[in-house]
Amino acid sequence: MSYLDIEEQLNKITDDLRQELERAGAIDKNGETIDYAKFDGVIENLVDKIIPISRELELGRYDANSRNLVESRIAWLREIKNAHSVAYPTNLSDGKEEEIIQKTKSKSPSAFTKGTGLVHRLFGFQRRVPQKSGHGK
């Protein structure tokens, strides 16, 4: 079984995720979660369908990409389960990191150095002085 065959099998299992959730009554037509227990049940059912593929890969000799593909698909389904949403965001940040990056791009390196010094002073990042062990006293 090649990498493409495994990917095709995984796609057959997960491509109709939204329709399966609607059929089970877990989400409404707008994609809002109605019943969390049914939502979790559908996701766990899909994970249970993928696990035999993972076991098959363990028994045979396949490339690492195939194994990573299966494991990442299981992790993706579990993230959707934890979020209880089909529209699970890929970027969970609130945008603060991007604002900081944009601000530091426009500043000179000396301003950045001053800023990092301030952060180190505020949060107590200090160099540790190596301490001698008790054996040489």
Task: Please characterize this protein's 3D structure.
The protein has 137 residues and is mainly alpha-helical. The protein is extended and about 55 Å long. The longest helix is centred in the middle third of the chain and has 24 residues. The protein is built from six helices and no strands. The protein starts with a helix and ends in a 14-residue tail after the last helix. The protein has two domains: 81 residues, no CATH class; 31 residues.
Q: Main attributes?
A:
single chain, 137 residues, mainly alpha, 6 helices, 0% strand, extended
- The span between the termini is 65 Å
How would you spell out the order of helices and strands?
HHHHHH
What is the CA-based Rg, rounded?
24 Å
Supply the helix-strand structural class: mainly alpha
Output mean pLDDT.
Answer: 77
Number of helices: 6
Largest beta-sheet details: none
The number of E-state strands comes to 0
Question: How much helical structure, as a percent, in the residues?
Answer: 55-70%
Provide the low-confidence segments as ranges.
none
* Count of discrete structural domains: 2
Give the percentage of residues in beta strands: under 5%
Silhouette: extended
